[in-house]
Amino acid sequence: MTIRPILVHPDPRLKRVAEPVGAVDDDLRALIDDMLDTMYDAPGVGLAAPQIGVGRRVFVMDVAGKDEDPAPMAMVDPVILEASDETTVHEEGCLSIPDIYENVERPARVRMRWLDRDGRLCEGSFDALGAVCAQHEFDHLDGRLFIDHLGAVKRSLITQKMKKLKRERAKTAAAG
């Protein structure tokens, strides 16, 4: 298990549509384990493969509360089967857009189908933070970021902040 570097916006790999996985094998399970380690280390509640430069349709999430046992999930080739008409607004952040949080409106509930880390077909419904996280990570698989749900001016300002952050990180790395 390895903690992998997380891509920071703007990076063209974050805007690409991920390819279907198809079959679950040992290499994919190792990727899932790396993704979970990376997500927990960051720390975050979700991570999609494109965020670590892997263009495959897989994400991991764990929305267990701080006083609850971890409940990691891996979703391979997920499909949203149904989204509620009712919406909710939730403050979202993203490991690929560090330290930026904005309110995003999304369906309050979703029903999804996916393969788990053992290749079993699963189906489930999510609400509250689970629905927000699942939709946020699903967006990554389609090359969308949470800031794509914001207005153009706000999105542009955030992109400029991320470019500045990347320049600062590059200077620090070069100096170190």
Task: Explain what this protein looks like in three dimensions.
There is one protein chain. The radius of gyration is 16 Å and the shape is globular. It is of the alpha+beta class. A five-stranded antiparallel sheet has the order 1-2-3-6-7, sandwiched between helices. Strands 4-5 form a two-stranded antiparallel ribbon. 31% of the residues lie in helices and 29% in strands. A hairpin with a 5-residue loop joins strand 6 (109-115) and strand 7. The protein has helices spanning 26-41, 128-141, 152-175; strands at residues 46-48, 58-61, 73-83, 87-94, 97-107, 109-115, 121-127.
Layout of secondary structure:
Layout: H1 26-41, E1 46-48, E2 58-61, E3 73-83, E4 87-94, E5 97-107, E6 109-115, E7 121-127, H2 128-141, H3 152-175
Antiparallel strand pairs: 1-2, 2-3, 3-6, 4-5, 6-7
Task: Supply the key terms.
176 residues; Peptide Deformylase; 5-stranded antiparallel beta sheet; 3 helices
